[in-house]
């Protein structure tokens, strides 16, 4: 091959490489430019960002990840069609305190599945370097890892819900006592709620803050607490919200109700702790039987054994 065609091929390849680099840089600059929504929405927050039933686009803040946002959105739709259960996911997201839509959660499941697939593919590649590997088995393992990653994100959501509900139960007696003290001091239910929310922090305080925001937008107090009782997954909070709604509607004393509910929660927690300790009584004996007792026996009999060995003829 002569030198002239080689120069032509080299120039063509260099031109294609420069064109590809130019396209990548142009797309990256376009993705980093603030969108129209980002520039306008801070000034119209009270109008709402999305309409009912409208799906928001998936944005991650990274140009490289935003480049794959349409693909992730399509994959999230596919996961939703396969798994279903959107009402359950929406309810668990609300109970976990996560500000995400069902579609965004499905995209997270896809990302977890891709991570599992990548880990399995890396393991198969490393395994193939040392010994031969059946390609069908490797593909099957990668697909299983993909499914497990998707399901693991759903299980993690349930774990987040349980963790947050335990935190709510732990915070409830203190919040109820503070509300009772504020009401007993002469403040109304809304003013007492505002005082407690401003001076506390936690999962229950966030839920009460949402109730307070709904009341300030014009929703009746009883309706706001009834909605909290209907959406929460903690029976204690549901009874508390229902009791506050009834007390506001009928004018019954609220202080006694709050004190009684706080005492009931403390007693319930003490009873659950005793039951948990009784269930784990055998496990608590494991270190005593298998660690402390053998060491004690060894210290008791080892000197005598050594003495008998020294005095034996």
From TrEMBL:
Keyword Membrane applies: yes
Pfam family, one: T2SSF
Database matches in InterPro entries: T2SS_GspF_dom
Compartment(s) where it occurs, according to its Swiss-Prot or TrEMBL record: Cell membrane
Top-rank taxon: Bacteria
Membrane-spanning parts: 6-25, 110-129, 135-152, 282-305
Membrane topology, from the record: Multi-pass membrane protein
One GO CC term on file: plasma membrane
Major subcellular location class: membrane
UniProt keyword list: Cell membrane, Membrane, Transmembrane, Transmembrane helix
Residues of the Type II secretion system protein GspF domain: 176-299
PANTHER family the UniProt entry points to: INTEGRAL MEMBRANE PROTEIN-RELATED (PTHR35007), PILUS ASSEMBLE PROTEIN (PTHR35007:SF2)
Protein known as: Tight adherence protein C
């Amino acid at each position: 091959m002569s030198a002239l065609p080689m120069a032509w091929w080299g120039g063509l390849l260099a031109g294609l490489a420069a064109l590809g680099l130019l396209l990548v840089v142009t797309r990256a600059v376009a993705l980093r430019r603030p969108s129209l929504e980002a520039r306008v929405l801070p000034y119209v927050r009270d109008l709402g960002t999305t309409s009912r039933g409208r799906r928001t686009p998936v944005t991650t803040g990274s140009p490289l990840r935003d480049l794959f946002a349409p693909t992730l959105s399509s994959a999230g739709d596919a996961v939703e069609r396969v798994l279903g259960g959107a009402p359950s996911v929406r309810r668990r997201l609300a109970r976990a305190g996560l500000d995400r839509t069902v579609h965004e959660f499905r995209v997270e499941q896809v990302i977890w599945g891709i991570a599992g697939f990548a880990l399995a593919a890396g393991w198969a590649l490393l395994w193939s370097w040392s010994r031969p590997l059946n390609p069908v088995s490797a593909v099957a393992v990668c697909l299983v890892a993909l499914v497990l990653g998707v399901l693991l994100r759903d299980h993690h959501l349930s774990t987040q819900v349980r963790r947050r509900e335990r935190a709510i139960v732990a915070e409830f007696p203190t919040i109820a006592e503070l509300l009772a003290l504020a009401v007993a001091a002469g403040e109304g239910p809304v003013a007492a709620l505002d005082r407690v929310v401003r001076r506390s922090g936690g999962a229950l305080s966030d839920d009460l803050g949402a109730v307070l925001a709904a009341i300030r937008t014009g929703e009746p107090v009883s309706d706001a607490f009834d909605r909290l009782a209907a959406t929460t997954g903690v029976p204690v909070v549901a009874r508390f919200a229902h009791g506050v709604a009834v007390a506001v509607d009928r004018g019954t004393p609220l202080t006694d109700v709050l004190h009684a509910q706080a005492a009931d929660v403390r007693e319930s927690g003490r009873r659950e702790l005793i039951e948990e300790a009784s269930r784990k009584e055998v496990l608590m004996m494991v270190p005593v039987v298998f660690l402390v007792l053998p060491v004690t026996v060894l210290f008791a009999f080892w000197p005598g054994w050594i003495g008998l060995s020294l005095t034996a003829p």
